[in-house]
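Backbone-to-sequence.
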């Protein structure tokens, strides 16, 4: 019987990581059923799945895990209490796709400024527009970036190329120029033309933006959310859109997902929905994830500090 640590990973990543797994006894699963069978015996697991309920069930069965790896930056779907009680190390995908998701967020801003969604709709209807549906000039506008981790920092970096004046919100103000704390941003909402949301989903951030926040925003300001749908009170957002209290919303994320076909957000005025595609809108995601796994495997085996270890108490 092998004395090597047992690992369970999807066959999708096998070509990229197998050459570095000589010290492991690996099962490469191809289905949820296979993952569920091997999960209780795994010391190391990589159980990422698009179906979050199935993924949670598989991880729940992995009661012997020493290390759980994930490509997902958000860990709200994971059984965190169980993992903490087991002493499992959880490494997430924080930072893996930060630049790429930031590109998507900037695309959403550009869509909102020039209303390219309306232009494309008219193209498909073979309508020749006499005037542009969006005339917002981005140069010189002001943006608030709520959540200044990897994604937020990349958004700020990319916005600087458009000469946008960026103020960022961190959990705790650090004294850096243009970086404020959680207690300071609400009173300044009226200053900004763009409000980007890139904070983690936790109990503390649920409905971070609701009726009061939308009322405090400029009537021309747009909300851009590439974090999680739970950070925005969607009922309050619908009211703000319908009453034109804000300029509009570009949402990569909603609550729930997928958004039901009869949900009023689909047809709300000035609402652009991009179906949580930002995390998939790149070509090198799995290569970056595999490279990080290989590096973390070396560190796990040598007892060194690993990259992107989630904090169970904070929830990210």
């Amino acid at each position: 019987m092998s004395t090597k640590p047992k690992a369970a990973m999807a066959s999708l990543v096998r070509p990229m990581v197998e050459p570095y797994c000589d010290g492991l006894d690996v099962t490469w699963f191809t289905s949820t059923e296979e993952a569920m069978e091997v999960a209780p015996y795994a010391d190391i697991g990589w159980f990422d799945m698009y179906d979050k309920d199935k993924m949670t069930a598989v991880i729940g069965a992995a009661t012997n895990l020493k290390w759980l790896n994930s490509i997902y930056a958000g860990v709200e779907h994971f059984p965190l209490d169980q993992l903490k009680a087991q002493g499992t190390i959880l490494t997430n995908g924080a930072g893996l796709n930060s630049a790429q998701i930031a590109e998507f967020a900037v695309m959403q801003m550009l869509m909102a400024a020039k209303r390219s969604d309306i232009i494309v709709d008219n193209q498909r209807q073979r309508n020749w527009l006499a005037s542009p549906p969006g005339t917002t000039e981005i140069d010189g506008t002001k943006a608030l970036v709520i959540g200044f981790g990897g994604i937020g920092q990349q958004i700020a970096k990319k916005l600087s190329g458009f000469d946008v004046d960026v103020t960022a919100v961190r959990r705790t103000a650090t004294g850096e120029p243009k970086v404020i704390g959680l207690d300071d941003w609400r009173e300044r909402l009226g200053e900004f033309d763009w409000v980007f949301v890139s904070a983690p989903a936790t109990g503390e951030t649920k409905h971070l933006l609701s009726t009061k926040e939308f009322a405090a925003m400029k009537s021309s300001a747009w909300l851009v959310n590439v974090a999680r749908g739970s950070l925005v009170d969607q009922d309050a957002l619908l009211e703000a859109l319908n009453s034109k209290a804000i300029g509009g919303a570009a949402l990569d994320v909603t609550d729930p997902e997928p958004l039901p076909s009869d949900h009023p957000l689909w047809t709300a005025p000035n609402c652009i929905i991009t179906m949580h595609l930002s995390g998939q809108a790149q070509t090198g995601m799995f290569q970056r994830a595999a490279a990080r796994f290989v590096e973390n495997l070396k560190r796990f085996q040598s007892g060194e500090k690993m990259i992107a270890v989630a904090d169970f108490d904070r929830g990210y």
